[in-house]
Amino acid sequence: MEDELVRVFDTNRNPIGVATREEVHRQGLWHESFHCWIVSREEEIDYLYLQLRCNLKKDHPNLFDITSAGHLLAHETAADGIREIKEELGIDIAFTELIPLGIINYCVNHEDLIDNELAHTFLYKKNLAFDEFSLQKEEVSGIIKVKFSDFIDLWTGVKQEINIKGFEINNNGEKLVIDRLADKNEFVPHGLSFYETIIQLIKEKLNECS
């Protein structure tokens, strides 16, 4: 996976060549990724689905994260990112069903990794039962959903904990129910500004659709 080739860009988003994933993360080169946030609306309440990263992941194992995300390879466009949803979650979605949220500059400095992504970001609206998810066990070990209003309260400091509901698959392949409180420490530390940006973009699209 570290040998996969991705396109690299300058700070003005101009393509300047190709490099391996290992090189872009070691040197902090700008490269493309695909992010999709899945939301549902049930009884007039908006919910946000999040994935639980597998405990074998090199970065941020066992933390809740963007519903589906991954790198775009050198030969791929944003539309090809739809494969991430199918691979990770087992959900079939047409690219035309996604609502574009724009390209977000996503920057994280984590130990020996400098991740500078041009994240092609999308929203997908659908009520999904947990049984509809078929997880890629090497990447994802669970799915939860949270009230979007609670998610906002968590990252704006209004609440210290929020209720999460869903399931996880343990190392024995058993499906366990999740229904408890969680705090910020259980979510990938993308940075407050990233969460604030995402919250604002999702709020705008949900308001347009309501």
Question: Short summary of the structure?
Answer:
Helix content is 20%, strand content 43%. The chain has four helices and eleven strands. β3 and β4 form a beta hairpin.
Describe this structure in words.
With 210 residues, the protein is an alpha+beta fold. Helix content is 20%, strand content 43%. The chain contains 4 helices and 11 strands, in the order ββαββββαβββαββα. It has helices at residues 21-27, 82-89, 148-156, 192-209, and strands spanning 5-9, 15-20, 30-42, 45-53, 64-65, 68-71, 99-110, 113-125, 140-147, 161-169, 175-183. Strands 1, 2, 3, 4, 5, 6, 7, 8, 9, 10 and 11 form an 11-stranded mixed sheet that branches. Helix 3 (148-156) runs antiparallel to helix 4. The longest helix has 18 residues, at 192-209. The termini are far apart. 30% of the residues are buried.
Residue share in helices?
10-25%
Structural class: alpha+beta
What Rg, in angstroms, do the CA atoms define? 17 Å
Count the beta strands. Answer: 11
- Percentage of β-strand residues: 35-45%
Order of helices and strands: EEHEEEEHEEEHEEH
Rounded mean pLDDT score: 94
Shape: globular
Note the total helix count. 4
Which consecutive residue ranges, at least 5 long each, have pLDDT under 50? none
Largest sheet: 11 strands, mixed
N-to-C span: 41 Å
Primary descriptors:
4 helices; 11-stranded mixed β-sheet; alpha+beta; 43% strand; single chain
